[in-house]
Design brief:
The complex is a heterodimer of chains A (about 250) and B (about 300). Chain A has 9 helices and 2 strands. Chain A is mainly alpha-helical. Chain A folds into 2 domains: about 5-200, no CATH class; about 215-250, no CATH class. In chain A, strands 1-2 form a two-stranded antiparallel ribbon. Chain A is globular. Chain B is mostly helical and about 300 residues long. Chain B has one domain (about 20-295): Ammonium transporter fold. Chain B has 14 helices and no strands. In chain B, helix 2 (about 45-65) packs parallel to helix 4 and helix 4 packs across helix 5 (about 120-135). The radius of gyration of chain B is 20 Å and the shape is globular. Chain B starts with 18 loop residues before the first helix and ends in a 14-residue tail after the last helix. Classes of the chains: A mainly alpha (about 250), B mainly alpha (about 300). At the A-B interface, loops of A face helix 5 of B.
């Protein structure tokens, strides 16, 4: 189960989908005005991500290459529908607050990205934990952003007033521009920690799935394709070697 | 003269005009408006100006120390601080004024690479930041127990306004925007010294007047148009902020286009928008379009033919 722990750590810290991979920006910016909304959105995404990763990994021998994207979407959409019905039944207020962003989880690029780059080429258990790790990383990031925005714009946290009497709220953090400011500031903080760590000699290799390069400074496109020959379960980068690139089309021929 | 002959790559013609010199001229040109603000609104206006300028200068200095590249001596931070202060109401809490100063320099200017790299006018971006963040404090123009609507708000509500008072500045408003005379005196100075030219302010004001005349509902009545012209931040914006070197287009055609766009947007915001004022938002919106405007108005090089070398 060491592999599972490594996947969790990778999703939450090393490849945090929001702060490192910069994926899923739309819900990140749209639903984080309150900490509880960020938490709810994150957890809903986590459930979909973990389960769809598991199912896609189990079906990876059955799904043909050429129609894999529609197949992924069908699987993901099924889970999103389940989640939405559950939210409508048991958490109607959260469902109302998140609005259209719950159905939009279907097209969340984190989920499709993990399906493409990990679950489709790896065994079920690591895939499940990869989804869990990524989802929890997303949840942590959204809750952080939501907490900062809620404190600044409402003077409260998870609905409880925490600021002293006479605190003047800064309304801009309740609307979209404030989300950009908070996201940028938290990302900068995270990069600062990484740079300081690097200077002290600690190596933070950011990307393990696909390549060992820093995503932000990478000019390569289509890196999701690199996992097709990786069914053996070898994780790229963990032993310091880059993965060999296999062109899909050639494989098909 | 000897030191002018250098063996070097271009540019070969050097000007003695420096950033600091231009900024100093702008500061001097803003002094009449600032002085009138202190005279009209009292000593607290001076305190707001002082706090804002101190916060911008300090932010730039600290950032310069951190980056080991001290740029505070070019006085641009003073101009930003002064412009921001002139755009604030006199009763604003001082910490808000300081926060605006820090935001303008740190977020809008330095994080994008410092002077010359900012894509938006720092003072106006900070004003809009404060306006969205603290709508109550930013629109409370009462001073010395005088309360009332700003002339533009009164005009929008259909009341009569005293245009003479608006031109001399005996009205409600932000610290620097009330006196048209003081602002025009500063603008004349800038025009005389060649710091700005009339392309942007001229096309801006003419477009706005045409728009207000056609859509304002009062026709081209001189009283209405002069009240629109003298009211709010139009003069301050047109002469001091739309002409900011960094955030205006470089091409001549582009500058006219930019002025026309600002005039249209200000007219739309003032006449059809929910608020009475729209100069700030019009100018920062225009700032965002500058790269596009420059792209479509790029002059054709001499002898250039489409599809390859001549």
């Amino acid at each position: 189960m060491n592999r599972a722990g490594e996947r969790l750590y990778n999703g939450i810290v090393k490849e945090n989908p929001t702060f490192v991979l910069m994926l899923g920006m739309c819900p990140t910016l749209a639903v984080t005005a309150y900490a509880v909304n960020g938490l709810g959105m994150g957890l809903a995404t986590t459930v979909v991500l973990a389960l769809s990763n598991l199912i896609i990994s189990l079906l990876r021998g059955v799904i043909p290459n050429r129609i894999r994207i529609p197949a992924f979407i069908v699987i993901i959409a099924s889970f999103v529908t389940v989640i939405q019905l559950l939210l409508q039944a048991y958490l109607p207020s959260l469902n109302k607050a998140l609005g259209v962003y719950i159905p939009l989880i279907v097209v969340n690029c984190i989920i499709l990205g993990r399906a493409e780059s990990y679950a489709y080429g790896n065994p079920p258990v690591p895939s499940l934990f990869d989804g869990l790790g990524m989802g929890l990383g997303f949840t942590a990031a959204l809750t952080c952003i939501g907490a900062v925005r809620e404190i600044l714009a409402q003077g409260s946290l998870f609905g409880y007033d925490i600021m002293p009497e006479g605190y003047i709220t800064i309304n801009i953090f309740g609307v979209a521009p404030g989300a950009f400011f908070v996201l940028a500031a938290l990302t900068a903080l995270q990069n600062y920690v990484r740079i300081v760590g690097k200077r002290k000699g600690r190596e933070y290799r950011k990307l393990q799935s696909g390549c060992s390069e820093d995503c932000m400074n990478c000019s390569d496109t289509g890196c999701a394709r690199r996992f097709y020959d990786n069914g053996s379960g070898q994780t790229a980068g963990s032993d310091g070697t880059a993965l060999s690139v296999t062109d899909l089309d050639e494989e098909d021929r | 003269m000897d030191e002018l002959y250098k063996v070097s790559s271009n540019p070969h013609i050097r000007s003695r005009v420096s950033t600091g010199g231009i900024m100093l001229t702008v500061i001097i040109a803003l002094l009449p408006a600032a002085g009138f603000g202190i005279f009209h609104f009292g000593i607290r206006a001076g305190a707001v100006i002082l706090v804002t300028v101190a916060s911008t200068v300090l932010t730039e200095a600290l950032f310069g120390l951190y980056k080991k590249k001290l740029t505070v001596t070019d006085l641009s931070a003073v101009v930003t601080g002064l412009l921001l202060a002139l755009n604030l109401p006199v009763g604003i809490p001082l910490w808000m004024a300081a926060l605006g100063g820090v935001f303008s320099i740190l977020v809008v200017k330095m994080l994008f690479g410092g002077l010359g790299q900012n894509f938006m006018n720092p003072a106006l971006a900070a004003r809009c930041f404060l306006l969205i963040s603290f709508p109550v404090q930013m629109t409370d123009f009462s001073y010395d127990a005088c309360t009332g609507a700003t002339p533009l708000a009164a005009l929008k509500a259909g009341e009569d306004v005293n245009v003479l008072d608006m031109i001399t500045g005996q009205t409600m408003g932000t610290i620097g925007e009330t006196s048209m005379i003081a602002l025009l005196a500063g603008a004349c100075l800038l025009l005389l010294f060649g710091v700005i030219d009339l392309r942007i302010p001229g096309s801006y004001l003419v477009t706005f007047l045409l728009f207000a005349g056609i859509f304002g509902g009062h026709g081209f009545s001189p009283a209405y148009l002069s009240a629109q012209l003298a009211g709010g931040g139009l003069m301050l914006g047109a002469f001091f902020m739309a002409t900011d070197y960094v955030t205006r287009p470089i091409t001549v055609k582009g500058q006219y286009l930019y002025g026309i766009f600002l005039g249209l947007m200000t007219g739309i915001f003032r006449i059809f928008g929910p608020g009475a004022e729209g100069v700030s938002y019009a100018i920062i919106l225009g700032n965002l379009l500058v790269p596009l405007i420059e792209r479509v108005t790029l002059p054709k090089p001499f002898g250039y033919r489409k599809g390859g070398a001549a």
